[in-house]
Predict the 3D structure of the following.
Amino acid sequence: MLELLSQVPAAWVVLAGVVGLLVGSFLNVVIHRLPIMLERQWREQCAGLDAVATPAIPAERYNLVVPRSACPACRAPIKSWQNIPVLSWLWLRGQCASCQAPISVRYPLVELLCALLTAAVAWRFGFGAQALVAMAVTWTLIALTGIDLDHQLLPDALTLPLVWGGLLASLMPGAGTSGSLPVSPAEAIAGAVAGYLSLWTVYHLFRLCTGKEGMGYGDFKLLAALGAWLGWRMLLPIILGSASVGAVVGITLIVSGRRGRAVPIPFGPFLAAAGWLAMMKGPEWVGAYFALYTRP
């Protein structure tokens, strides 16, 4: 089987797309449940600081596995055949099988996006460990994007493992010698430090000048993670790309009246998108750019 996948690129890409569909279904759970889990933890920690609080009633287990998925409207458990990526949503016509409440189209869209990006990673990096780590980065970026869009939150539970994963991956045999992932240990360390400090500096300068916070600490950690995986050379293209697209989207939303000037726009999705593109094509783009100035 492994020999077939290594010798037939089309089979590897198709398999990656199918795996991406299944992972996308799980990412929907992560996007929905992880913020709720964090909020519960924060409430428990705050309750523990109250010395005169009465003993709290133990809450029921709630994590990425328990309880079983159910319709948010009627609480009917979702059966296994109703949880097949994309197909179940189409079969049910975007409605709950029990109460006909609408099911958000975002669920199949996340699954399709994950499948397409995973297949693209398989095609770009080929069969091997490099593709597997690139897929893990891709899936984490999708989850972070969904959570940030919903809650303007980039959880440490995802950003910090992404940072450490990039640093540890730099120790893999052959790191930094082929492609863009993973980079050498020196590149990874410099990228993580430079990524964090660059946005940290912008944050504090903006706060000193305006008295407002322009972004969250999660953005620092996400850029540090991208620097750990891609190296410090990719940080400038990522920052410029994400800031440019973010500015265009923000101005468009304000001009169209869909968002007020005082309403913050999450920056994480733009960082994630620019980071993924840099992972896929960054070295070629940077090489082509410098080639323009090195020709005789």
In short: The mean pLDDT is 87. The chain has two domains: 1-127, 128-296.
